[in-house]
Write a structure and sequence with these properties.
The radius of gyration is 13 Å and the shape is globular. The chain contains no helices and 13 strands. It is mainly β. Strands 2, 4, 5, 6, 9, 12 and 13 form a seven-stranded mixed sheet that branches. A four-stranded antiparallel sheet has the order 1-3-8-7, with no helix packed on it. A two-stranded antiparallel sheet has the order 10-11. The N and C termini lie far apart (40 Å).
């Protein structure tokens, strides 16, 4: 019954902005990951039940993760986009047990983000 559905991807020129959304279930730990062809999956940003956020060094100051608990929706605001941000972006969730977020093993289908120079 767990469903994670991303939306908001598309093509944008360098320096532009894009906002991704994810219809999420009731999992407390949520995050955004991305993967480009022939590259390993990269953690972009996560947010825990207390609202504490964490970002990859490559996106700090440019991306903002947030969530609306009432709407069960996760967001990723991406500003000052660069060509290297081009990737398939995935919404993911993890269990929150014993005050910890465990492995992010629940995934959405992905939404493509392409940034041109």
């Amino acid at each position: 019954q767990v469903e994670l559905v991303e939306s908001g991807g598309g093509s944008v020129q360098a320096g532009g902005s894009l906002k991704l959304s994810c219809a999420a279930s009731g999992y407390a730990c949520l995050g955004w990951f991305r993967q480009a062809p022939e590259k390993e999956r990269e953690r972009v940003a996560t947010i825990d039940p207390r609202g504490t956020t964490s970002y990859a060094d490559s996106v700090k100051g440019r991306f903002t993760i947030s969530k609306d608990n009432a709407k069960n929706t996760l967001y990723l605001q991406m500003n000052s986009l660069k060509p290297e941000d081009t990737a398939m972006y995935y919404c993911a969730a993890a269990r929150f047990l014993f005050s910890r977020c465990y492995e992010y093993k629940y995934w959405g289908q992905g939404t493509q983000v392409t940034v041109s120079s």
